[in-house]
Amino acid sequence: MKWDTHTFTFILLLIVGLWELARGFNASKTMKEGQVKLTARSYYLTGAVVLIAAIYYAYKLWG
To answer: Are 14 and 57 in contact (CB under 8 A)?
Structure first.
């Protein structure tokens, strides 16, 4: 695998996906018990979608 634009895009998608998952984890831990955790769920959902896009991108590119 050579370092080109596609590799950079894949690495960037991975970083963003993991970052969003970490934001969701942090948001869920810092919220109080009675609060609705919609913010944390949206971070988790965004992170999961970005990671799925990264996996699909890698499969189409190198698969």
So the answer is: no
Virtual torsion, Cα 28, 40, 21, 63, nearest 10 deg:
140
pLDDT at 1: 58
Site of tokens 């996906």: 17
pLDDT tens-digit series, residues 44-53: 999 999 999 9
Give the separation between CA 24 and CA 8, rounded to whole angstroms.
24
Handedness of CA 26, 32, 33, 35 (dihedral sign): negative
Q: What is the mean pLDDT of the chain?
A: 88
